[in-house]
Amino acid sequence: MLQAQKLSAAALKYSGLNIESLDNTVLATIINKKVENITAIKDYNHSLTSESFIERKPHEFKRALQGNKRHFILECKKSSPSLGDFCPDFNLEKIVSCYNDRADEISVLTEEFFFKGSFEYLKQVRKLTEKPILCKDFIIAKEQIEIAKKIGADAVLLMLSVLTFDKFLELYNFAKELNLDVLTEVANEAEAKFAVEHHIDIIGINNRNLHTLTIDLNNAKKLYPLFPKDTVVISESGIKTHRDIVNMLPIKNFLIGSALCSEIDIELKANSLLYGFNKLCGLTDKAGIETAINNKFSLAGLIFAPQSPRCINLDRAAKLALNPIYKSKINFCGVFKDADLDTVVEIVTKLCLKFVQLHGKESPEYIKTLHEKCPKLTIIKALGMSESLNNEDYLLFKEYVAKADLLLLDSKNPGSGKEFDKSLIPDFINKDKTIISGGIGPSNIASILTLNFCGIDCNSCLESAPGKKDPELTRKLFDRINEIKE
């Protein structure tokens, strides 16, 4: 963990630093090093020849964050003062490949001493994407902005916690002269009011206290109402789950880095974080798996219940679940109904399943034994919602809450395409660990999402025939997941 410092003598003499905000903080530790390194930064700027300049269309960064949907700035980040070296596989080709299919823009850390970033990383990312790029650094000099422009950034970050208001305006106007957009970071009400007074058009609200490094996700929600409606406002730092994103409404723009780059299976994490922990069930062929992957589902459901019209045999399931093409793109979930425990264990082992869903009357003891036999397995217990439920049923549900890893709430007749009465959902259900199912399709997804469960489970409402998923219907549903109704 980075320790707080007093500003160095050189930093105290450096023109334009927000001394009152910085002194005796962890930010001072970073800025002391930045001031110490400023000569090297200027030398690097002079070394960049005109032949290497990358010209970009102006204001692409701001344009990419407009419209009635959620927008994501996804970050290339390998280390931080609070987390240390958290990225086990900082492979920019792999990271940017994931982001190209999900991000509206890409942020690249270029601070080299505490975040282990570099301008070379930004140059590499520029070659890998056409999306707008944010150069994220502790900018205190015009030369840093010139470097960002020359190597292909579309926007730079300026922090009001680091700069005096006069220095900020000087650097802000300089960036605008270079046709760069500016993401202005604010952390408190005074900084927010200054930004409003000066008609700053792109705002990042940092949920991290830069003096203590603690996170408060309410900071963005607290400051958001201070800005005019036409301001592009971005929530920065601390986003770890999709429910964090949903709970930020009416904010619709997010900068996310550590939560993604810390994962080896970055695509799987991105899907659940950005869109929810969603499952497409009743898959029987490669086309269905590809539909699930293309629409960012986290789980592909393979049904082994003989009574289901979507039941799949073990050989066919193996060709899907063990296909190396799908590794790191989607997890497979075996769905069982009152199956013999040894049969479930055998299928889990043969298919290397990480998830199972139990859709029958399996007891809490059954779940406990399955956990003992397959300790790494995530067990989802489905609960049928109907008006005939009684107190005894709800007491049993409480036992499932304690034994299962996740719950799934479904209609009494799964696969029927019918919704259940949501007033039947008991208060003790933890939405962070519960998936909702039952007749979910493009026509009702908007209302389902307002319930704010950790994910959705879709099946028959996205089919052209039992077991055959309709790519067009599935795309319609996916497109509505991050729509924002004004």
UniProtKB/TrEMBL annotation:
Residues covered by the Indole-3-glycerol phosphate synthase domain: 28-271
Pfam families registered for this protein in UniProt: IGPS, PRAI
GO MF assignments: indole-3-glycerol-phosphate synthase activity; phosphoribosylanthranilate isomerase activity
Domain N-(5'phosphoribosyl) anthranilate isomerase (PRAI) residue range list: 278-479
InterPro entries membership: Aldolase_TIM, Indole-3-glycerol_P_synth, Indole-3-glycerol_P_synth_dom, Indole-3-GlycerolPSynthase_CS, PRAI_dom, RibuloseP-bd_barrel
Record-listed E.C. numbers: 5.3.1.24
Domain of life per record: Bacteria
Keyword set, alphabetical order: Amino-acid biosynthesis, Aromatic amino acid biosynthesis, Decarboxylase, Isomerase, Lyase, Multifunctional enzyme, Tryptophan biosynthesis
Keyword Amino-acid biosynthesis: yes
Matches recorded under NCBIfam families: PRK09427.1
HAMAP family: PRAI (MF_00135)
Protein name from the UniProt record: N-(5'-phosphoribosyl)anthranilate isomerase
Originating organism: Succinatimonas hippei (strain DSM 22608 / JCM 16073 / KCTC 15190 / YIT 12066)
